[in-house]
Protein backbone atom coordinates (compact mmCIF):
# COMPACT_ATOMS: atom_id res chain seq x y z
CA UNK A 1 0.00 0.00 0.00
CA UNK A 2 1.18 3.53 -0.84
CA UNK A 3 4.50 2.39 -2.17
CA UNK A 4 4.05 3.39 -5.77
CA UNK A 5 4.07 6.68 -7.60
CA UNK A 6 2.05 7.11 -10.79
CA UNK A 7 3.28 9.53 -13.43
CA UNK A 8 1.10 10.75 -16.28
CA UNK A 9 2.72 12.53 -19.23
CA UNK A 10 0.18 13.73 -21.73
CA UNK A 11 1.77 15.24 -24.83
CA UNK A 12 0.11 16.51 -27.99
CA UNK A 13 0.18 13.10 -29.65
CA UNK A 14 1.03 10.54 -26.99
CA UNK A 15 0.09 9.54 -23.49
CA UNK A 16 2.69 7.91 -21.28
CA UNK A 17 2.06 6.18 -17.94
CA UNK A 18 4.96 5.26 -15.69
CA UNK A 19 4.82 3.58 -12.31
CA UNK A 20 7.70 3.96 -9.86
CA UNK A 21 8.40 1.76 -6.89
CA UNK A 22 9.02 3.66 -3.65
CA UNK A 23 9.82 0.72 -1.42
CA UNK A 24 13.45 1.75 -1.16
CA UNK A 25 13.23 5.08 0.70
CA UNK A 26 14.37 8.05 -1.39
CA UNK A 27 14.99 5.82 -4.39
CA UNK A 28 12.81 6.05 -7.44
CA UNK A 29 12.93 2.81 -9.29
CA UNK A 30 11.00 2.50 -12.50
CA UNK A 31 8.57 -0.42 -12.17
CA UNK A 32 6.66 -0.43 -15.44
CA UNK A 33 5.15 1.91 -17.96
CA UNK A 34 3.44 2.23 -21.27
CA UNK A 35 2.69 4.61 -24.05
CA UNK A 36 -0.20 5.29 -26.36
CA UNK A 37 0.74 7.09 -29.53
CA UNK A 38 -1.26 8.55 -32.37
CA UNK A 39 -3.64 10.40 -30.10
CA UNK A 40 -5.34 13.37 -31.71
CA UNK A 41 -5.22 13.64 -35.48
CA UNK A 42 -4.86 9.95 -36.16
CA UNK A 43 -7.59 8.83 -33.76
CA UNK A 44 -9.88 11.81 -33.26
CA UNK A 45 -12.25 9.94 -30.96
CA UNK A 46 -9.51 8.83 -28.61
CA UNK A 47 -8.60 11.68 -26.32
CA UNK A 48 -6.24 11.77 -23.41
CA UNK A 49 -9.18 12.60 -21.20
CA UNK A 50 -10.94 9.40 -22.22
CA UNK A 51 -7.81 7.36 -21.73
CA UNK A 52 -7.23 8.78 -18.28
CA UNK A 53 -10.83 8.08 -17.32
CA UNK A 54 -10.54 4.58 -18.64
CA UNK A 55 -7.58 3.85 -16.44
CA UNK A 56 -8.66 5.74 -13.38
CA UNK A 57 -12.26 4.70 -13.30
CA UNK A 58 -11.82 2.62 -10.20
CA UNK A 59 -10.00 3.66 -7.12
CA UNK A 60 -7.54 0.81 -7.32
CA UNK A 61 -6.67 1.95 -10.83
CA UNK A 62 -7.28 -1.54 -12.08
CA UNK A 63 -10.25 -1.23 -14.36
CA UNK A 64 -10.36 0.14 -17.85
CA UNK A 65 -13.96 0.96 -18.62
CA UNK A 66 -14.83 3.10 -21.61
CA UNK A 67 -17.11 1.36 -24.08
CA UNK A 68 -16.24 3.43 -27.14
CA UNK A 69 -12.53 3.10 -26.66
CA UNK A 70 -11.94 -0.53 -27.44
CA UNK A 71 -8.41 -0.12 -28.67
CA UNK A 72 -7.45 2.11 -25.80
CA UNK A 73 -8.99 -0.28 -23.32
CA UNK A 74 -7.10 -3.17 -24.70
CA UNK A 75 -3.75 -1.44 -24.70
CA UNK A 76 -4.13 0.12 -21.31
CA UNK A 77 -5.90 -2.86 -19.83
CA UNK A 78 -3.18 -5.25 -20.99
CA UNK A 79 -0.44 -3.62 -19.07
CA UNK A 80 -2.16 -1.54 -16.42
CA UNK A 81 -4.99 -3.89 -15.54
CA UNK A 82 -2.69 -6.71 -14.62
CA UNK A 83 -0.05 -4.61 -12.97
CA UNK A 84 -1.42 -1.83 -10.83
CA UNK A 85 -3.09 -3.22 -7.76
CA UNK A 86 -2.43 -0.41 -5.33
CA UNK A 87 -3.46 3.15 -4.66
CA UNK A 88 -0.43 5.29 -5.44
CA UNK A 89 1.10 7.48 -2.76
CA UNK A 90 0.84 10.32 -5.23
CA UNK A 91 0.22 11.05 -8.88
CA UNK A 92 2.59 13.38 -10.74
CA UNK A 93 1.39 15.10 -13.90
CA UNK A 94 3.09 16.90 -16.73
CA UNK A 95 1.34 20.26 -17.04
CA UNK A 96 2.55 22.19 -20.04
CA UNK A 97 1.78 25.74 -18.87
CA UNK A 98 2.46 27.06 -15.38
CA UNK A 99 2.03 30.72 -16.34
CA UNK A 100 3.83 33.46 -14.41
CA UNK A 101 2.77 31.94 -11.10
CA UNK A 102 4.78 28.72 -10.97
CA UNK A 103 8.55 28.43 -11.08
CA UNK A 104 8.42 24.98 -9.46
CA UNK A 105 6.14 21.97 -9.15
CA UNK A 106 3.21 22.31 -6.76
CA UNK A 107 0.71 20.15 -4.87
CA UNK A 108 -2.67 20.33 -6.56
CA UNK A 109 -5.46 22.12 -4.70
CA UNK A 110 -8.78 23.64 -5.83
CA UNK A 111 -7.07 27.02 -6.22
CA UNK A 112 -4.15 25.62 -8.20
CA UNK A 113 -6.49 23.72 -10.50
CA UNK A 114 -8.66 26.78 -11.08
CA UNK A 115 -5.59 28.86 -11.96
CA UNK A 116 -4.20 26.25 -14.32
CA UNK A 117 -7.53 26.08 -16.12
CA UNK A 118 -7.26 29.78 -16.93
CA UNK A 119 -4.13 28.92 -18.95
CA UNK A 120 -5.96 26.54 -21.34
CA UNK A 121 -6.05 29.16 -24.15
CA UNK A 122 -2.26 29.48 -23.90
CA UNK A 123 -1.76 25.76 -24.64
CA UNK A 124 -4.88 24.54 -26.40
CA UNK A 125 -3.29 21.29 -27.60
CA UNK A 126 -2.05 20.32 -24.18
CA UNK A 127 -3.39 22.00 -21.07
CA UNK A 128 -6.89 20.53 -21.21
CA UNK A 129 -5.47 17.04 -21.75
CA UNK A 130 -2.94 17.57 -18.97
CA UNK A 131 -5.60 18.74 -16.53
CA UNK A 132 -8.27 16.16 -17.37
CA UNK A 133 -6.74 13.31 -15.37
CA UNK A 134 -5.93 15.74 -12.52
CA UNK A 135 -9.58 16.78 -12.38
CA UNK A 136 -10.87 13.19 -12.56
CA UNK A 137 -8.66 12.05 -9.69
CA UNK A 138 -9.22 15.23 -7.66
CA UNK A 139 -12.99 14.89 -7.84
CA UNK A 140 -13.25 11.17 -7.33
CA UNK A 141 -10.38 10.53 -4.90
CA UNK A 142 -9.58 13.83 -3.22
CA UNK A 143 -7.26 12.17 -0.71
CA UNK A 144 -4.79 11.05 -3.39
CA UNK A 145 -1.98 13.62 -3.45
CA UNK A 146 -1.35 15.07 -6.88
CA UNK A 147 1.53 17.19 -8.08
CA UNK A 148 1.61 19.47 -11.11
CA UNK A 149 5.02 19.53 -12.81
CA UNK A 150 5.46 22.26 -15.39
CA UNK A 151 7.14 22.45 -18.79
CA UNK A 152 7.67 26.15 -18.17
CA UNK A 153 9.36 26.00 -14.74
CA UNK A 154 12.88 25.06 -15.94
CA UNK A 155 13.03 28.25 -18.01
CA UNK A 156 12.21 30.65 -15.20
CA UNK A 157 15.94 31.35 -14.90
CA UNK A 158 15.78 33.49 -18.08
CA UNK A 159 17.11 36.99 -18.08
CA UNK A 160 14.65 39.90 -18.45
CA UNK A 161 15.79 40.63 -22.00
CA UNK A 162 15.16 37.02 -22.98
CA UNK A 163 11.78 36.88 -21.25
CA UNK A 164 10.37 40.04 -22.85
CA UNK A 165 8.61 40.72 -26.10
CA UNK A 166 9.15 44.18 -27.56
CA UNK A 167 5.72 45.23 -26.34
CA UNK A 168 4.64 47.75 -23.71
CA UNK A 169 5.25 46.75 -20.09
CA UNK A 170 1.53 46.35 -19.42
CA UNK A 171 1.48 43.20 -21.57
CA UNK A 172 4.38 41.71 -19.64
CA UNK A 173 2.59 42.53 -16.39
CA UNK A 174 -0.43 40.63 -17.66
CA UNK A 175 1.70 37.56 -18.34
CA UNK A 176 2.54 38.06 -22.01
CA UNK A 177 6.11 36.74 -21.78
CA UNK A 178 8.39 34.21 -23.38
CA UNK A 179 7.98 31.18 -21.10
CA UNK A 180 9.62 28.30 -22.97
CA UNK A 181 8.41 24.69 -22.82
CA UNK A 182 9.71 21.08 -22.75
CA UNK A 183 11.41 22.06 -19.47
CA UNK A 184 10.94 18.61 -17.92
CA UNK A 185 12.87 17.14 -20.83
CA UNK A 186 15.65 19.75 -20.60
CA UNK A 187 15.86 19.22 -16.86
CA UNK A 188 16.50 15.53 -17.52
CA UNK A 189 19.14 16.31 -20.16
CA UNK A 190 20.86 18.72 -17.75
CA UNK A 191 20.86 16.08 -15.01
CA UNK A 192 22.29 13.41 -17.30
CA UNK A 193 25.04 15.70 -18.54
CA UNK A 194 25.90 16.71 -14.98
CA UNK A 195 26.06 13.07 -13.90
CA UNK A 196 27.77 11.48 -16.90
CA UNK A 197 29.67 14.33 -18.56
CA UNK A 198 30.26 17.07 -15.97
CA UNK A 199 32.71 18.90 -18.25
CA UNK A 200 30.07 19.05 -20.98
CA UNK A 201 27.40 20.19 -18.50
CA UNK A 202 29.57 23.13 -17.45
CA UNK A 203 29.98 24.24 -21.07
CA UNK A 204 27.80 25.87 -23.71
CA UNK A 205 25.08 23.41 -24.63
CA UNK A 206 22.14 23.57 -27.00
CA UNK A 207 19.60 20.77 -26.57
CA UNK A 208 17.10 20.19 -29.37
CA UNK A 209 13.92 18.44 -28.25
CA UNK A 210 12.44 17.30 -31.56
CA UNK A 211 9.20 15.38 -31.00
CA UNK A 212 5.68 16.18 -32.19
CA UNK A 213 6.26 19.50 -30.51
CA UNK A 214 9.79 20.78 -31.03
CA UNK A 215 11.98 23.35 -29.34
CA UNK A 216 15.60 24.00 -28.55
CA UNK A 217 17.16 25.29 -25.36
CA UNK A 218 20.47 27.02 -24.71
CA UNK A 219 22.00 25.99 -21.40
CA UNK A 220 24.95 27.14 -19.34
CA UNK A 221 25.96 25.04 -16.37
CA UNK A 222 22.76 23.04 -16.71
CA UNK A 223 20.53 26.11 -16.44
CA UNK A 224 18.22 27.32 -19.18
CA UNK A 225 19.36 30.62 -20.68
CA UNK A 226 17.14 30.83 -23.76
CA UNK A 227 14.45 28.78 -25.52
CA UNK A 228 12.93 28.89 -28.98
CA UNK A 229 9.41 28.63 -27.59
CA UNK A 230 7.62 31.69 -26.26
CA UNK A 231 4.26 32.67 -24.79
CA UNK A 232 2.74 29.51 -26.25
CA UNK A 233 4.10 26.27 -27.70
CA UNK A 234 3.60 27.68 -31.22
CA UNK A 235 6.78 29.69 -31.53
CA UNK A 236 10.24 28.67 -32.70
CA UNK A 237 10.92 25.47 -34.62
CA UNK A 238 8.50 24.02 -37.16
CA UNK A 239 6.68 21.01 -35.65
CA UNK A 240 4.49 18.11 -36.69
CA UNK A 241 1.36 20.28 -37.02
CA UNK A 242 2.51 23.72 -35.77
CA UNK A 243 4.34 26.28 -37.94
CA UNK A 244 6.90 27.54 -35.43
CA UNK A 245 8.06 31.12 -35.95
CA UNK A 246 5.49 33.07 -37.92
CA UNK A 247 5.18 36.73 -38.79
CA UNK A 248 2.25 37.97 -36.62
CA UNK A 249 1.16 39.94 -39.69
CA UNK A 250 0.04 36.62 -41.16
CA UNK A 251 -2.44 36.22 -38.31
CA UNK A 252 -3.73 39.78 -38.84
CA UNK A 253 -4.15 39.00 -42.53
CA UNK A 254 -6.12 35.84 -41.68
CA UNK A 255 -8.41 37.91 -39.44
CA UNK A 256 -8.92 40.41 -42.22
CA UNK A 257 -9.80 37.56 -44.56
CA UNK A 258 -12.63 36.70 -42.18
CA UNK A 259 -11.15 33.68 -40.47
CA UNK A 260 -12.44 33.24 -36.92
CA UNK A 261 -10.30 32.76 -33.80
CA UNK A 262 -11.17 29.05 -33.74
CA UNK A 263 -10.30 28.58 -37.41
CA UNK A 264 -6.94 30.29 -36.98
CA UNK A 265 -6.22 28.38 -33.80
CA UNK A 266 -7.02 25.08 -35.50
CA UNK A 267 -4.85 25.97 -38.49
CA UNK A 268 -1.89 26.95 -36.33
CA UNK A 269 -2.05 24.04 -33.89
CA UNK A 270 -3.34 21.19 -36.04
CA UNK A 271 -2.87 21.84 -39.75
CA UNK A 272 0.49 23.55 -40.14
CA UNK A 273 4.12 22.47 -39.71
CA UNK A 274 5.25 19.30 -41.51
CA UNK A 275 1.62 18.37 -42.13
CA UNK A 276 0.69 21.72 -43.65
CA UNK A 277 3.83 22.14 -45.73
CA UNK A 278 3.79 18.63 -47.16
CA UNK A 279 0.03 18.14 -47.40
CA UNK A 280 0.95 14.49 -46.77
CA UNK A 281 1.70 13.72 -43.14
CA UNK A 282 2.73 15.14 -39.79
CA UNK A 283 5.12 12.22 -39.27
CA UNK A 284 8.64 12.83 -40.52
CA UNK A 285 9.00 9.12 -41.35
CA UNK A 286 6.19 9.32 -43.92
CA UNK A 287 7.86 12.33 -45.52
CA UNK A 288 11.24 10.61 -45.65
CA UNK A 289 9.57 7.66 -47.40
CA UNK A 290 7.75 9.85 -49.93
CA UNK A 291 8.91 10.93 -53.42
CA UNK A 292 6.59 13.95 -53.47
CA UNK A 293 8.33 17.34 -53.89
CA UNK A 294 6.14 18.77 -51.10
CA UNK A 295 7.49 16.11 -48.71
CA UNK A 296 11.05 17.15 -49.56
CA UNK A 297 10.11 20.82 -49.12
CA UNK A 298 8.79 20.08 -45.61
CA UNK A 299 11.94 18.14 -44.69
CA UNK A 300 14.19 20.91 -46.05
CA UNK A 301 12.20 23.59 -44.24
CA UNK A 302 12.43 21.63 -40.96
CA UNK A 303 16.20 21.09 -41.22
CA UNK A 304 16.79 24.72 -42.27
CA UNK A 305 14.73 26.34 -39.52
CA UNK A 306 15.98 24.02 -36.78
CA UNK A 307 19.59 24.79 -37.76
CA UNK A 308 18.82 28.50 -38.00
CA UNK A 309 17.33 28.50 -34.51
CA UNK A 310 20.23 26.53 -33.04
CA UNK A 311 22.60 29.11 -34.51
CA UNK A 312 20.45 31.88 -33.02
CA UNK A 313 20.61 30.32 -29.56
CA UNK A 314 24.40 30.49 -29.69
CA UNK A 315 24.14 34.26 -29.19
CA UNK A 316 22.68 33.66 -25.72
CA UNK A 317 25.58 31.42 -24.65
CA UNK A 318 28.30 33.07 -26.77
CA UNK A 319 29.20 30.02 -28.82
CA UNK A 320 28.60 26.30 -28.74
CA UNK A 321 30.48 23.33 -27.31
CA UNK A 322 27.86 20.60 -27.41
CA UNK A 323 24.67 19.94 -29.33
CA UNK A 324 22.26 17.36 -27.90
CA UNK A 325 19.42 15.77 -29.85
CA UNK A 326 16.48 14.31 -27.96
CA UNK A 327 12.78 13.25 -28.23
CA UNK A 328 11.18 11.16 -31.02
CA UNK A 329 12.87 12.71 -34.06
CA UNK A 330 16.04 13.75 -32.24
CA UNK A 331 16.61 10.28 -30.82
CA UNK A 332 15.66 8.21 -33.85
CA UNK A 333 15.99 10.11 -37.10
CA UNK A 334 19.52 9.94 -38.50
CA UNK A 335 18.49 11.72 -41.74
CA UNK A 336 16.95 14.64 -39.81
CA UNK A 337 20.05 15.02 -37.62
CA UNK A 338 22.25 14.78 -40.68
CA UNK A 339 20.38 17.54 -42.56
CA UNK A 340 20.26 19.84 -39.52
CA UNK A 341 23.98 19.42 -38.87
CA UNK A 342 24.66 19.84 -42.60
CA UNK A 343 23.14 23.31 -42.34
CA UNK A 344 25.52 24.01 -39.44
CA UNK A 345 28.67 22.72 -41.17
CA UNK A 346 29.98 26.31 -41.41
CA UNK A 347 30.30 26.17 -37.60
CA UNK A 348 32.64 23.21 -38.05
CA UNK A 349 30.06 20.64 -36.92
CA UNK A 350 30.78 17.32 -38.56
CA UNK A 351 28.99 14.04 -37.96
CA UNK A 352 30.40 10.54 -38.13
CA UNK A 353 27.68 9.14 -40.40
CA UNK A 354 28.14 5.54 -39.23
CA UNK A 355 27.64 6.61 -35.62
CA UNK A 356 24.72 8.83 -36.66
CA UNK A 357 23.01 5.96 -38.49
CA UNK A 358 23.46 3.81 -35.38
CA UNK A 359 21.86 6.47 -33.10
CA UNK A 360 25.07 6.26 -31.04
CA UNK A 361 25.36 8.34 -27.85
CA UNK A 362 28.02 10.56 -29.49
CA UNK A 363 27.61 11.04 -33.25
CA UNK A 364 30.13 13.78 -34.06
CA UNK A 365 33.36 13.08 -35.94
CA UNK A 366 36.48 13.06 -33.78
CA UNK A 367 37.70 16.30 -35.40
CA UNK A 368 34.41 18.16 -34.99
CA UNK A 369 35.02 21.16 -32.67
CA UNK A 370 31.42 20.84 -31.48
CA UNK A 371 30.38 17.50 -29.97
CA UNK A 372 26.99 16.15 -30.99
CA UNK A 373 25.16 13.75 -28.66
CA UNK A 374 21.97 11.71 -28.87
CA UNK A 375 20.36 11.41 -25.45
CA UNK A 376 16.98 9.75 -24.95
CA UNK A 377 14.90 11.99 -22.74
CA UNK A 378 12.94 10.89 -19.68
CA UNK A 379 10.36 13.47 -18.69
CA UNK A 380 8.59 10.87 -16.55
CA UNK A 381 11.57 10.45 -14.24
CA UNK A 382 11.75 14.22 -13.70
CA UNK A 383 8.02 14.29 -12.94
CA UNK A 384 8.55 11.46 -10.44
CA UNK A 385 11.47 13.30 -8.80
CA UNK A 386 9.52 16.55 -8.55
CA UNK A 387 6.45 14.72 -7.26
CA UNK A 388 8.39 13.00 -4.53
CA UNK A 389 10.05 16.28 -3.59
CA UNK A 390 6.73 18.13 -3.48
CA UNK A 391 4.95 15.57 -1.32
CA UNK A 392 7.93 15.31 1.01
CA UNK A 393 8.01 19.07 1.45
CA UNK A 394 4.22 19.21 1.77
CA UNK A 395 4.24 22.18 -0.60
CA UNK A 396 1.02 23.92 -1.42
N1 LIG B 1 12.15 5.96 -35.67
C1 LIG B 1 11.78 7.21 -35.90
N2 LIG B 1 12.30 7.88 -36.94
C2 LIG B 1 11.91 9.13 -37.21
N3 LIG B 1 11.02 9.81 -36.45
C3 LIG B 1 10.49 9.20 -35.41
C4 LIG B 1 10.82 7.87 -35.08
N4 LIG B 1 10.13 7.53 -33.97
C5 LIG B 1 9.37 8.61 -33.65
N5 LIG B 1 9.58 9.59 -34.53
C6 LIG B 1 8.95 10.92 -34.56
O1 LIG B 1 8.83 11.39 -33.24
C7 LIG B 1 7.60 12.09 -33.09
C8 LIG B 1 7.05 11.85 -31.70
O2 LIG B 1 7.99 12.29 -30.77
P1 LIG B 1 7.79 12.03 -29.20
O3 LIG B 1 8.82 12.84 -28.52
O4 LIG B 1 7.79 10.58 -28.93
O5 LIG B 1 6.31 12.53 -29.05
P2 LIG B 1 5.53 13.56 -28.20
O6 LIG B 1 5.93 14.90 -28.72
O7 LIG B 1 4.12 13.23 -28.43
O8 LIG B 1 5.97 13.35 -26.77
C9 LIG B 1 6.66 11.58 -34.15
O9 LIG B 1 6.06 12.69 -34.78
C10 LIG B 1 7.56 10.84 -35.13
O10 LIG B 1 7.58 11.54 -36.35
C1 LIG C 1 5.08 21.82 -25.33
C2 LIG C 1 4.94 20.83 -26.43
O1 LIG C 1 4.96 21.20 -27.59
O2 LIG C 1 4.80 19.56 -26.06
P1 LIG C 1 4.68 18.27 -27.02
O3 LIG C 1 6.00 18.12 -27.68
O4 LIG C 1 4.40 17.15 -26.06
O5 LIG C 1 3.58 18.53 -27.99
MG1 LIG D 1 6.78 14.81 -25.65
From TrEMBL:
<keyword id="KW-0067">ATP-binding</keyword>
<feature type="active site" description="Proton donor/acceptor">
    <location>
        <position position="151"/>
    </location>
</feature>
<feature type="site" description="Transition state stabilizer">
    <location>
        <position position="182"/>
    </location>
</feature>
<dbReference type="Pfam" id="PF00871">
    <property type="entry name" value="Acetate_kinase"/>
</dbReference>
<feature type="binding site">
    <location>
        <position position="94"/>
    </location>
    <ligand>
        <name>substrate</name>
    </ligand>
</feature>
<dbReference type="GO" id="GO:0006085">
    <property type="term" value="P:acetyl-CoA biosynthetic process"/>
</dbReference>
<feature type="site" description="Transition state stabilizer">
    <location>
        <position position="242"/>
    </location>
</feature>
<keyword id="KW-0963">Cytoplasm</keyword>
<feature type="binding site">
    <location>
        <begin position="209"/>
        <end position="213"/>
    </location>
    <ligand>
        <name>ATP</name>
    </ligand>
</feature>
<protein>
    <recommendedName>
        <fullName>Acetate kinase</fullName>
        <ecNumber>2.7.2.1</ecNumber>
    </recommendedName>
</protein>
<dbReference type="InterPro" id="IPR004372">
    <property type="entry name" value="Ac/propionate_kinase"/>
</dbReference>
<keyword id="KW-0460">Magnesium</keyword>
<dbReference type="InterPro" id="IPR023865">
    <property type="entry name" value="Aliphatic_acid_kinase_CS"/>
</dbReference>
<feature type="binding site">
    <location>
        <begin position="283"/>
        <end position="285"/>
    </location>
    <ligand>
        <name>ATP</name>
    </ligand>
</feature>
<keyword id="KW-0418">Kinase</keyword>
<dbReference type="GO" id="GO:0000287">
    <property type="term" value="F:magnesium ion binding"/>
</dbReference>
<dbReference type="GO" id="GO:0006083">
    <property type="term" value="P:acetate metabolic process"/>
</dbReference>
<keyword id="KW-0547">Nucleotide-binding</keyword>
<keyword id="KW-0808">Transferase</keyword>
<feature type="binding site">
    <location>
        <position position="16"/>
    </location>
    <ligand>
        <name>ATP</name>
    </ligand>
</feature>
<dbReference type="InterPro" id="IPR000890">
    <property type="entry name" value="Aliphatic_acid_kin_short-chain"/>
</dbReference>
<comment type="similarity">
    <text>Belongs to the acetokinase family.</text>
</comment>
<feature type="binding site">
    <location>
        <position position="379"/>
    </location>
    <ligand>
        <name>Mg(2+)</name>
    </ligand>
</feature>
<feature type="binding site">
    <location>
        <begin position="328"/>
        <end position="332"/>
    </location>
    <ligand>
        <name>ATP</name>
    </ligand>
</feature>
<dbReference type="GO" id="GO:0005829">
    <property type="term" value="C:cytosol"/>
</dbReference>
<feature type="binding site">
    <location>
        <position position="9"/>
    </location>
    <ligand>
        <name>Mg(2+)</name>
    </ligand>
</feature>
<dbReference type="GO" id="GO:0008776">
    <property type="term" value="F:acetate kinase activity"/>
</dbReference>
<comment type="subunit">
    <text>Homodimer.</text>
</comment>
<dbReference type="InterPro" id="IPR043129">
    <property type="entry name" value="ATPase_NBD"/>
</dbReference>
<comment type="pathway">
    <text>Metabolic intermediate biosynthesis; acetyl-CoA biosynthesis; acetyl-CoA from acetate: step 1/2.</text>
</comment>
<keyword id="KW-0479">Metal-binding</keyword>
<comment type="function">
    <text>Catalyzes the formation of acetyl phosphate from acetate and ATP. Can also catalyze the reverse reaction.</text>
</comment>
<dbReference type="GO" id="GO:0005524">
    <property type="term" value="F:ATP binding"/>
</dbReference>
